Amino acid sequence: MNFDDTPQEAAFRAEVRRWIGANAPREFEAELSKASLGRIKLKKHDIVEVAKAWQRKKSEGGWVCLNWPREYGGRGATAVERVIWQQEEGVYFKLTHPFQIGEGMCGPTLMAYGSEADKRRYLPKIASGEEIWCQLFSEPSGGSDVAGLRTRAEADGDHWIINGQKIWTSGAHYSDYGILITRTDPNVPKHKGLTMFYIDMKSAGVEVRPIKQANGMQEFNEVFFTNLRISDEQRLGAVGDGWNVSLTTLMNERMTIGARLATGFSELFDFCCNLMTEDGLAIDDHATRSKLANWAVKNSGLKYTSMRAISALSKGERPGPENSIGKLVAGSMLQDIAMYAMDLQGASGMLTDPDAAEAAGQFQAMLMSSPSTRIAGGTDEILRNIIAERVLGLPGDIRVDKDVPFNKIPTRGR
Amino acid sequence: MNFDFSDEQKQLRDEARKFLAEKCPPKAVRAVLDGNAPYDRELWKGLAGMGFLGVAVPEAYGGAGAGHLELCVIAEEMGRALAPVPFSSTVYLAAEALLIAGSEAQKQKWLPLIAGGYAIGTLALFEGKGNPSPEGIKLLASGNSLSGVKKPVPDGAIADFVIVAARTGSTGRDSDISLFLVDMKAGGVEAKTLTNVDPSRGQAELIFRNCKAEPLGAATEGWSLVSQVLDRAAVLLAFEQVGGADRALEMGRDYALDRIAFGRPIGSFQAVKHMLADMYVSATLARSNCYYGAWALSTNASELPEAAAAARISATQAFQHCAKNNIQVHGGMGFTWEFDCHLYYRRANATALSLGSLSYWEDALIDRMRKRNAA
Questions:
Q1: A301 and B267 in contact by Cβ < 8 A?
Q2: B370 and B228 in one domain?
Q3: What is the mean pLDDT of residues B342-361?
Q4: B149 and B194, same structural domain?
Q5: The whole model's pTM is what?
């Protein structure tokens, strides 16, 4: 039981530190460290442009997609080296946001199912950030129930014609490509009639409409397909095997270890250490201390749970299921912490006016963005099902639509 | 980085689990619970024979000289099995106090007796309601003679020696408190058994009347020593709590798989699945906090006070959460004397208080985090 790097890991860490020290865009450091979850904006610069420039620089130094093979733009590094990079990247990690779906989901799917030519064409540009990818899975009729999707792909010689609609597509408005799951056969049960493709987001027949979110920002989109025509060469995996392909994608998402989940705890702790109330410092209040302590042990529990997973990786083992608790714990914590920080401010806690709000309005912004963390990438309820079924071995839900041809499944509740 | 127990330590855990499965079935816990014996003597001897009582005691004092990580591993198994023996009082409190504060002669005398299973020890700290604090200690030491009342004292009625926190000054400072060691054979102490929510482990009231004692550690250092012992015991007891939490979760899971209602296993209903998933989340967070505590304890790291408080809070919450919801999953059967659910519920709620309540450790954690942040 120790926290020490092996000599090789220590050498790698030193090299990372040297490189980041010499190359990081320090002019944005202060702004980035203050940017709280759900509102990463830079005052005078476009965040995507700044992110692309940093990604390009990292790519030139060989510091992107670290665990990908070199021939596809990666570094051929170990999983632990990748974690060390993430630990050292610090606040600049916030600039990787536009590339995370490409690195974590689309890239690995291409690597598993794309042709060699496709891999050589697309993967290095995903890695360098030159081309941004999105993931076109969720639909109005299939959120948690992704396999209920209705976007149709119909064969037309050696091409496919695609019609339908996706929703909640993060980053579609600045993406160049996307992986798209479609229904190619509505006459078989829902999981069996799906096929995966990749598409050029700039093609005719693709229309991206940003969705204005509850917090006022626009990070995700609706994407409409009207007679989008693509080559069969853009198919990933066999016709009808799209569900299995999508599981590869999602599995890769869950295997992303060391992901830094925001809980809001350190922000709240600092806030309470400095907030003067009529009864003194907030942190001297018994009720506040009790709440802080409860969140503190969740926060540290998550941190050490992720360290246990990293240890397993470093020994060449597969991380255990304990890592599946991360988003479930962090999501509701973020929301509860935002509400409590505002409660401590009394009536003025409702203010978001930049000149009047406490702590530059970061908890109010956290409040408004936090509902999405409990929904995106698996709702709290789906995550509990996953823990119950895959970790604890409890029976799966009874699925009344499982063996029914897709076009016979009811579409309305009443 | 290797944030895990070693293969040898995992092997030790398997050995301990196997041993306890055989020597400490629920029937053995119930024998003590039902009042047939103050503790399981056979099991206590067996634990000594396995070398578990002195696992963290140096070889020079008759122990195995392994270390505190090994002790954490065994503690978890003791918690899982609800072992009805004075392990936490003797090993986490008395032996730890001797190790950090005992004179050479005291260590030579008592540690080999602990490791061999010949002496039961405990710490007499509390004096009625309230959490650990120097102000709460009224028991007076006049020279080496103690007078006053301690309660609850874990395993106080079966102890061979007791470490006592006593008042030696009245300046209002921590230095007013000193530690003493009392050999119960010497007389001058009346022990009364007190019933408690977890009868599988005893609690007592000890009345000291001009009782002869010997100082343990430097005079005026008593409170600092108490704090250190409590932190060390908090990590070790947290492992017991995590072991208990895991077992309660398993019991709930197994019952949910077996029990049929409305034509299907109750574990297929989301209301039940989600309850069990949340228990798993608590138990996992607690385990991870405990691993950090184990690291801090075994390396004597300066992070120990903060790590111990976090492990203590997290493990207390997890055990209470898993034990109460294990009963809920079992429904009416979970509330019968016959089913073992209440054994875990009792142990969870007694251990939640035995080193001071949650609010005490919450306060301690926040103080310690502030100190670190200010540094």
A1: no
A2: yes
A3: 98
A4: yes
A5: 0.94
Flag the least confident range among A222-226, A372-376, B173-177, B179-183: A372-376
Helix (H) or strand (E) holding B269: none
Q: Are residues B158 and B179 in the same domain?
A: yes
Query: Counting beta carbons within 10 angstroms of the beta carbon of residue B116, is it exposed (0 to 12), middle (13 to 18) or buried (19 or more)?
Result: middle
- Using a CB-CB cut-off of 8 Å, the residues of chain A touching B372 are none
B366 in a domain, yes or no? Answer: yes
Cβ pairs bridging A and B (under 8 Å): 160
Do B163 and B238 share a structural domain?
Answer: no
Asked if B229 and B351 sit in the same domain, the reply is: yes
Q: Are B317 and B324 in contact (CB under 8 A)?
A: no
Nearest chain A CA: its distance from B365 CA (Å): 7
| Per-residue pLDDT reduced to its tens digit, A388-397 | 999 999 999 8
Q: What is the pLDDT of residues B14-51, one digit of tens each?
A: 999 999 999 999 999 999 999 989 999 999 999 999 99
Asked about A253 being catalytic, the answer comes back as yes
Mean pLDDT of chain A: 91
Sequence-distant (≥ 6) Cβ neighbours of residue A186 within 8 angstroms: A152, A193, A405, A406, A407
Q: Pairing state of beta strands B121-124 and B161-167?
A: parallel
Residue of A253, A278, A317, A322 marked active site: A253
Q: Clarify whether residues B173 and B199 are in a common domain.
A: yes
Give the chain A residue nearest B287 (alpha carbons): A301
Answer whether the bond into residue B152 is a cis peptide, omega within 30°.
yes
State the nearest Cα–Cα gap between A233 and chain B, in angstroms: 42
**Domain boundaries, position B268:** 223-374
Q: Are A102 and A135 in contact (CB under 8 A)?
A: no
pLDDT of A211-268, one tens digit each?
999 999 888 999 999 999 999 999 999 999 999 999 877 776 655 554 568 899 999 9
Q: Which of A269, A286, A308 sits opposite B4 (nearest CB)?
A: A308
Q: ipTM above 0.90?
A: yes
Count of domains forming chain B: 3
Domain termination site, one of B220, B245, B265 = B220
